[in-house]
């Protein structure tokens, strides 16, 4: 198992999980606000997760319940639908990798490749842009980078500011000149 670090308040550092959460919330919203009886979210979460797991995914081409547990949702007679779980898992992985690289190329087209190093001083974006007053500061700092966790994640010396996380995504930093 590989330990991954993600920055707080930075959805793109953990995109797959954020996308899953968005899908589950949208599905729950539809069921909660359906005409008729209004339901509480905790009474429908199991139904929403099961529906999600039994739905064919556009990237892998398979339902998660099938890939994880071999649970096949019969949409056609079993003798017509040939299934080989190991082969299907391999195809799903290849489909995911292909989609990843396609999306990476699209995203990297407009990306600035500015290198950050240990010891560099940076300003850090402050909070959520939607929930602040017009004249609040946009960035705070400068702070010194003390560790490079990955090409996109850095640990900074936040000078014991309790409101600021020590692990920051590269997109939330600006080099102090």
UniProtKB/TrEMBL annotation:
SUPFAM superfamilies tied to this protein: Ribonuclease H-like
Domain spans labelled Integrase catalytic: 1-72
Superkingdom of origin organism: Eukaryota
Gene Ontology BP terms: DNA integration
InterPro entries: Integrase_cat-core (IPR001584), Retrovirus_Pol_polyprotein (IPR050951), RNaseH-like_sf (IPR012337), RNaseH_sf (IPR036397)
GO molecular function, one term: nucleic acid binding
Protein name listed in UniProt: Integrase catalytic domain-containing protein
Organism from which the protein derives: Panstrongylus megistus
Organism lineage string: Eukaryota, Metazoa, Ecdysozoa, Arthropoda, Hexapoda
């Amino acid at each position: 198992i590989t330990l991954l670090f993600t920055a707080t308040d930075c959805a793109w550092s953990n995109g797959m999980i954020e996308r899953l959460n968005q899908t589950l919330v949208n599905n729950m919203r539809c069921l909660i606000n359906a005409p008729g009886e209004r339901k509480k979210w905790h009474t429908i979460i199991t139904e929403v997760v099961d529906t999600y797991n039994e739905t064919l995914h556009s990237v892998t081409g398979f339902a998660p319940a099938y890939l994880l547990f071999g649970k096949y949702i019969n949409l056609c007679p079993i003798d017509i639908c040939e299934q080989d779980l190991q082969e299907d898992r391999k195809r799903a992985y290849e489909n995911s990798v292909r989609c990843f690289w396609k999306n990476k190329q699209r995203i990297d087209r407009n990306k600035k490749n500015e290198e950050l190093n240990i010891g560099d001083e940076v300003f850090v974006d402050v909070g959520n842009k939607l929930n602040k007053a017009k004249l609040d500061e946009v960035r705070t700092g400068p702070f010194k980078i003390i560790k490079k966790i990955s090409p996109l994640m850095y640990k900074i010396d936040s000078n014991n500011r309790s409101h600021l996380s020590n692990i920051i995504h590269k997109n939330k930093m600006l080099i102090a000149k």
